[in-house]
Specification:
The complex is a heterodimer of chains A (276) and B (72).
Chain A (H helix, E strand, L loop, with lengths): L21 H13 L10 E11 L10 E3 H13 L5 E12 H12 L5 E9 L3 H7 L2 E4 L4 E4 L12 H21 L4 H8 L11 E4 L1 H5 L5 E2 L2 H13 L3 H4 L33
Helix pairs in contact in A: 2-3, 3-4, 4-5
Chain B lengths: L1 E3 L3 H5 L9 E5 L2 E7 L4 E8 L16 E3 L6
Antiparallel strand pairs in B: 2-3, 3-4, 4-5
The chains are: A alpha/beta (276), B mainly beta (72).
Chain lengths: 276, 72
């Protein structure tokens, strides 16, 4: 990576001073405007959008919109190390993608020491499910969907029993991660994965909003306000977020109101129309 | 190995449109641009987890940014 054209707080001329006239002044103004110092709170949360296909070992054809492993992983490392960043919001609208890349991102999110909250909007399908449950707390929009289906092998397949063992192992990796990081039971997850009643090309289950909450995959129905309020609550109560990482909520854990609007003030509850 | 709801044939079908996107670092933020000529490029999207980067007018999709020695 080459040097940056200009450093913040360093007025200096733009890197391409050859363009004369109005174009240059407006560009300069924009660049200066872009460099104005922002208040510290702006760095409180970072947001990680997971959109389109999760791209890992193979570069997908350009028509696919992708979230690339090599972009996401270093950013997660940077967030973990930057003391100014207090939490991470993961916004998912993905159709799935590479298993290894998806699980890698999910493991990184899971093992972060900073509070993480995920929000499924639109769709969080296939490999998006492990990423969604990897966060300390997960939200799903009422209209968002999550599709659980078996993994498939395509292309050249060697027709030996070992191939199917391999397929099983790949599937078990995903199932284990989801079961370990959400409240859904393995039996229920497998049942949904191989359900033949719903016609989603072959087998599988489509969960819409509340259904994902009811089966224990996602913690709560909610949107942006709820997700940010939860992140704030985790920041104000250090250590609380990581305790949520249980398949089942321990008895000692206080049962928080499912509706974020009822969240106690001491936890930085969301006040409708009043900010935080 | 892919685990996706999009059929494999749709994922792997080649497009006649050949996108020419490059990732460049501008003011410390990674931005995906489509080069117009040697000197400037059009912003396609910002690749950053910093929400403030998305408020920066320089990075508005479609806006022109100079490409210089910062090409990566």
């Amino acid at each position: 990576m080459a040097a940056m054209p200009t450093m913040p707080n360093q007025p200096g001329p733009p890197p391409q001073p050859s363009q004369p006239g109005q174009e240059q002044t407006s560009m300069q103004a924009i660049r200066h405007f872009g460099q104005m110092s922002l208040p510290d709170e702006s760095n409180l949360f970072h947001v990680l959008p997971i959109i389109g296909q999760v791209e890992g070992h193979l570069i997908l054809p350009p028509r696919n919109k992708t979230t690339k492993y090599e972009h996401v992983i270093p950013q997660l490392v940077a967030i973990e190390q930057n003391p100014k960043i207090k939490g991470l919001l993961i916004v998912l609208n993905t159709v799935g993608g590479d298993i290894e890349a998806g699980l890698a991102i999910a493991e990184m999110i899971k093992t972060m020491s900073k509070p993480t909250v995920s929000l499924v909007l639109g769709g969080g399908h296939s490999i998006g499910i492990p990423i969604a449950v990897a966060a300390d707390y997960s939200f799903i929009a009422e209209t968002a969907t999550m599709t659980i289906h078996p993994i498939r092998l395509t292309g050249m397949v060697i027709g030996v029993p070992q191939t199917y063992d391999y397929l099983d192992k790949m599937q078990d990796r995903i199932i284990r991660f989801i079961v370990d990081n959400s409240r859904v039971s393995e039996a229920q997850l497998r049942e949904m994965m191989f359900r033949t009643g719903e016609l989603v090309r072959d087998v599988g289950t489509v969960l819409i909003g509340e259904e994902a909450v009811n089966c224990g995959l996602i913690n709560e129905i909610g949107g942006l306000g709820a997700a940010i309020a939860r992140l704030k609550m985790f920041i104000e109560n250090p250590g609380f977020s990581k305790q949520r990482r249980f398949p089942y909520q321990p008895a000692s854990m206080p049962n928080y109101p499912p509706n974020y609007r009822q969240m106690p003030q001491s936890f930085g509850g969301y006040q409708p129309g009043g900010g935080y | 190995m892919l685990y996706s709801i999009v059929p494999n044939e749709d994922i792997w079908s080649e497009d006649s449109v050949d996108y020419n996107f490059h990732e460049v670092m501008i003011d410390g933020f990674m931005v995906q641009v489509e080069p117009i000529d040697g000197a400037s490029g059009r912003v396609v999207r910002v690749i950053s987890t910093d929400p403030q980067a998305y408020l920066n007018p320089t990075f508005q999709p479609g806006s022109l940014v100079p490409l210089g020695s910062n090409r990566s």
